[in-house]
Amino acid sequence: MGKEYLIAGNWKMFKTAGQSREFIHELAQSFVPVLGLEVAVFPPFTALAGLRGLAPHIRIGAQNMFYEEKGAFTGEISPLMLQELVDFVLIGHSERREIFKESDEDVNKKVRAALQFKLLPVLCVGETLQEREAGKTKAKIKNQLEKAVQGMANYEMSKMVVAYEPIWAIGTGRKCIISSRAYGRNWLRGGT
Question: Which residue segment(s) compose the domain that 20 sits in?
Fold first, then answer.
């Protein structure tokens, strides 16, 4: 079996439920499925229910989730709530880590919960510009990966996607190109 690739778009805090439906219709009309390539979109929570099933070749993901199944966690979304709405869930996005102070332990709990509820975790890893300039990119990513999968079996780790998203490239217009000598791929472009 050949390599499979995932192209994903995180909509962040943009688009109402109606705008999301319009966008997915437009995207589906221009979309041509390609063998070995999956396309996913990550709209806001408010749009998820309305998008399910609208574009069969475009998969839907959630931008975040809490690691508990249920409970007194005002404003949080559980993996159980997402199960019938999405295929993927972003975990460890730099904005969640930096702005909302999610810890590596939180990320580990979320990855485990996603897998438990048959959601495909898209684990986001990446470094700041200061870490990059100090030559700490590999160490930062290694640390994030190790802590995210701590205590997990190999078969569990094989059920997740790792997305390299250098923090310094998000929303800045700066492109990140990494050679295969550094990370084992021909070319990997980052930044969401």
Answer: 1-61
